[in-house]
Amino acid sequence: MKKMQILLILIILSSIGVLIYASKDLSTYGNFQMAKDSGVKTKVVGVLAKEKPMEYNPAKDPNYFSFFITDNQGEVEKVILRAAKPQDFERSEQIVVTGSYRNGHFEASDLLMKCPSKYKDEEIYIKSKEI
Amino acid sequence: MDQIQYVGEHPIFGLIGHALVIGAFVTALLSAFGYIWSYRHRDDAPVANQWKQLARNSYFVHAFSCLSIFILLLFMMANSYYEYFYVWSHVNDKLPMQYILAAFWEGQEGSFLLWIMWHSVIGVVMIFKTKEWESLTLPVLCMAQAFLLTMIFGIHIPFGETVTKIGSSPFVYLRDVMDAPIFAKPDYLSVIEGRGMNVLLQNYWMTIHPPTLFLGFALSTVPFAFIVGGLISGRHKEVLKAVQPWALINGAILGLGILLGAAWAYEALSFNGYWAWDPVENMSLVPWLILIAGLHTNIIANSTGRSVKSTYWFYALTFIMVLFSTFLTRSGVLGDSSAHAFTEMGLEWQLIIFFMSFLIFFVILYFKKSGSIIDIKQEESISSREFWMFIGSIVLIFASILISFTTSIPVYNKLLDFWGGLFHINLTSYHRSAPLDPIAHYNKFQLWTAIFVALLSGFAYYLRYNEKNFSVKAKAFLINMSIFLALAILFSWIATFFIQIPSWQYFLFFGAGVFTFFANLYYLIKFLRKKPRQAGSVIAHMGYGLMLIGIIGSGLNKRFISTNPFTQKGMIADEDLGRNVLLIKDAPMTMSGYEVTYHGDTIFDNNRTFNLSFVKLDKNGQKTEHFNLRPNVVYERDFSKVAASNPSTLRTLTKDIYVHIASLPPEEINAEQAKEKEDSLKFENYTVNSHDTVFARKIFIKAGDIHLDPKNKNYTPEPGDIAISVDLEVGNMKDDTLYKVQPMIVLRKELLLNYGAQINDLSTKIELHPDIFKPLFDKSNVNTHSLTLKPGEHFEIGGKKMIFKQFKMADKDPKKIIVSGVLTDETGKIIGNPSFEIIGNSSRSDKVYLADANALIAMIRINPDTETASFEYNVINGLNKNIPLKVAENSTRSDYIVLEAVEFPGINFFWLGSLMMMVGLGWSILPKLKSKVKSARAA
Fold first, then answer.
1. CB distance from A3 to chain B under 8 Å?
2. pLDDT tens-digit map of B138-186
3. Domain edge (last residue) among B707, B734, B769
4. Among partner residues A22, A82, A94, which is closest to B576 by beta-carbon distance?
5. CB B331: neighbour CB atoms within 10 A?
6. Are strands B693-695 and B699-707 parallel, antiparallel or unpaired?
7. CA quadruple A18, A23, A24, A26: dihedral, nearest 10
8. Fewer CB within 10 Å, N- or C-terminus of chain A?
């Protein structure tokens, strides 16, 4: 066998190995119950529970933002993000929070929100009459 | 229903647009056909030439049509033809003209058009530059054009109950896309306004980044076209010579496009860095990596005749990955996992057919035609340059596979759903999502590919092609390598004094960067000093080394300096330690060695710029560093809300300091919340006597003088105004601090202007109640009386006895002299301090209301010789000594910003290095140009 062929086989084998190893990093979308049961870092998909209070008072703590999320099982849970409140948060359609349970709330380390495209409510803008 | 005759529309533009798209499509096919026929008749020159002429002419018509579509749409946008949906979506009356190009490619249709436009220009260049390859390469380009043009067809074919959509046209009418009652009006155009472009994208980056990136994408068609030509003709050696300059340009431009994206993310967007392994970023990087792998195997092929097959595959994959990345970013598949993917457009299947067609075409062609590629039987020596260059290319491919593997997760989910759908099984529980910490995930693997590539690109230069007898070179090689290795260790060790290198892996990474930098630098000096034209690749590899050094500096040593020193460590996990800090106006805050002060803000148009100063003090309190930063926020043009927050960066040679406004008081973020706050204030009414005190819930208010001619920086007096202000001192029961405020109210004809006073530290807002004006409208006495008094003298107004106690000089003010007269009642209690101001040659008196006497008094003159003062007063049936107040004790402060500040050490190494890579790629074309000139002369 040629050196190059041996090398290629080695490379293919190691790529398969590395890909299997890499695939362990892939996570699944979970819900609050799973996060509670496992106690480890989980990714939860949900929507903002708009009827529940949202708290961000930068004058008190600029790195404390709490809100409630309804996950895909319908469970509502308090989420704390230790960062500034993201812009247009109220308009998000879907929120993905990564984090784990701590002292009765979900402590988010990362938040990704899906916002509707620029102007979801497609309306025709009427020029103001005054010129 | 009768057809409405609309007024003011420009239907001819849409018609021409549609016709041009169809025309461009047909001429692309015709040109491809002509070229293929010309090639088929290559043995019969006259016939071949006729076909070629037809193909060329068709292509010129095609290119002209494509450019016309581009210019037509641009013209329609520049003239705001809102009857067209695309124009309406991306332009409005307020869009500044300099962003018209940015608006053009903001949408999917426009960016496809940009791609088409570049393709058509590249095709013209190819006709003139590819010589004998013209008939073999142009058909591929034309087919790519035909596919791209279908993306802007906008044909809807009813298919049973569903409608199949082919492409999305930029020439459809707004009234055909949307249903609104306004379209019943024939003159609807005169009243509507465009929806317009996203304010976030209105910047010059959006003008330069997409065209560069799309030129890079469009150029990747050329190497693909060449290798297709090579496979068909079987002239592998020649094609690989001809394709190399194109691949080099492709690499330089595509790389530059990616870098501009990184610079945009770093410079203008608040992404906290230049690279975040976002799917959209990854999918532009992958084609570039494969292209670079292809370039290296191409060089091997040109030098040794090996690696021909790999080169074919790598160039093909580059193009196919460009198409795949187009599918990923434009189909909406990435919606969940990327911060900046396009939204769904209903064209997924069309995009899949697009890239699958080219993939299948290539695979079939390859297996039919690759038999003619001659494999060199003899093995390459392990000490040859080509062996290690090939290994390097494989490492790059390996890196691309890993990046694509994780980035494509959403595709696996869609595939699962697709198969599940076929068998009616719900497979959503098998869905996977992107890694919890994507940056760590990608870094973990790419760290190693980067190290390998760096080491290889360092030592491979010191090996020879087709090495047969390494032993004679071995000693020199080993000495060289030991020196570079020693330099790498030395510099990495020195670096640890300036930056942190967190683990041995990163130490290796840094060292590999230094190693390749010196290896290439020495090569440049020693071997290429006299041949600067050939320095391209060495420059690129030196750049690569510098880039790795820059990544350790700016990526790993990126430090949030906006941490609050008062947050207690240990209470929350370190990773959660606040990245943002609250800055109250004019209150200096110490963070990470800097004293940062927020001085205020200025508004220009819809931009609000914040003034920040950073001062670094040494142990002795001496200023060692002082700079100002001005981050800004951009409001929507109607000020309804904040649209974007733009960072500001201090650039120095060794580090950047980057700040951006992470948040503002809610009422300053959007108009809705401002109103909410106004509504939420709980005002309660109190009355306080002048020079008396009243207690509210948590605070007490001491009233001083009442002024009838007050000054307030927000108030511009107009004749006839009645303005009242009251000096108040406010405190709470807890501490001794007294806050002096001067709420003010103005009656301007029938309009009330209320200038309330906000005391942030007490969360209190105090306004004067409009009732304060009531007594004024009783009949008043207008007779004016005069008095001249010495300090200590007694006098009487309206039966009340009072004393002019003394003069009082106000605090020194260089511009003016202020003297006030202290008036007391018989018990010595102060009842008024009318003041007299001298500013240059003029003077002004302040009228003070004496509540006890119901009189207004002013000190109009001071005579220093006799030490007397002249007063004027009139008794009015006016103001009561009762001052009605409105007090809200839940008014939170709004004079702050929430700031995020990041330090990026060594970032200039990253920019310099990455730029050198692209310059090096471009530079590498020089020797090719020279050899062409030579061969032209020889002929």
1. yes
2. 999 999 999 999 999 988 888 777 777 888 899 999 888 887 788 888 8
3. B769
4. A82
5. 24
6. antiparallel
7. 140
8. C
Same-domain status, B50 and B170: yes
What is the Cα–Cα distance from B270 to B281, expressed in whole angstroms? 16
B441 interfacial to chain A (CB closer than 8 Å): yes
A27-33, Cβ contacts within 8 angstroms, sequence gap of 24 or more: A27/B432, A27/B433, A27/B434, A27/B435, A27/B436, A28/B431, A28/B432, A28/B433, A29/A72, A29/A96, A29/B431, A29/B433, A31/A71, A31/A72, A31/A73, A31/A75, A32/A71, A32/A73, A32/A75, A32/A77, A32/A106, A33/A73, A33/A75
Range 84-123 of A in CB contact (< 8 A) with B? 84-85, 87-88, 94, 96, 98, 107, 109-110, 112, 114, 117-119, 122-123
Domain annotation covers residue B245:
no
B597 in any annotated domain: yes
Distance from CA of B877 to the nearest CA of A (A): 46
Q: Quote the CA–CA distance of B452 and B841 in Å, as a whole number.
A: 80
Does a structural domain hold residue A91? yes
The DSSP code sequence of B136-147 is HHHHHHHHHHHH
- In order of A87, B200, B606, B669, the CA distances from B641 in angstroms are 10, 12, 10, 6
Cβ A50 vs Cβ A90: under 8 Å: yes
* Single residue among B769, B794, B820 that ends a domain in this structure: B769
The H or E element containing residue B516 is: helix B504-527
| CB nearest to B436's CB, from A58, A59, A98 | A98
Number of folded domains in chain B? Answer: 4
User: Locate tokens 């990345």: which residue?
Assistant: B325
Q: Scan residues 13-42 of A and list those with Cβ closer than 8 Å to B.
A: 15, 18-19, 22-23, 25-29, 41
A4 lies within 8 A of chain B by CB: yes
Task: Judge if B148 and B8 occupy the same domain.
Answer: yes
Dihedrals phi, psi of A64, to nearest 5 degrees: -135, 115
Buried b (16+ CB within 10 A) or exposed e, A30-66: bbbebbeeeeebbbbbbebbeeeeeebebbebbbbbb
**Cβ neighbours of residue B435 closer than 8 Å, sequence gap 6 or more:** A25, A26, A27, B406, B441
| Closest-CA residue to B721 (of B737, B732, B707, B703) | B707
**Which residues of A, range 56-85, sit inside 8 Å of B by Cβ?**
56-59, 61-63, 82-85
| Contact call for residues B152 and B117 (beta carbons, < 8 A) | no
pTM beyond cutoff 0.90 = no
Contacts of A87 in chain B (CB under 8 A): 642, 645, 669
In three-state secondary structure terms, B918 is helix
Q: Range of A79's domain?
A: 28-114
What's the domain range around B631?
Answer: 574-671+897-904
> How do residues B640-655 score in pLDDT, each as one tens digit?
888 888 888 888 888 8
B225-270 per-position pLDDT tens digit: 999 999 999 999 999 999 999 999 999 999 999 999 999 888 776 6
Looking at the structure, tell me whether residues B143 and B32 fall in a common domain. Answer: yes
Q: Which two tokens stand for residue B798?
A: 């309206």
Same domain, B642 and B698: no
Gap between the Cα atoms of B303 and B790, Å rounded: 108
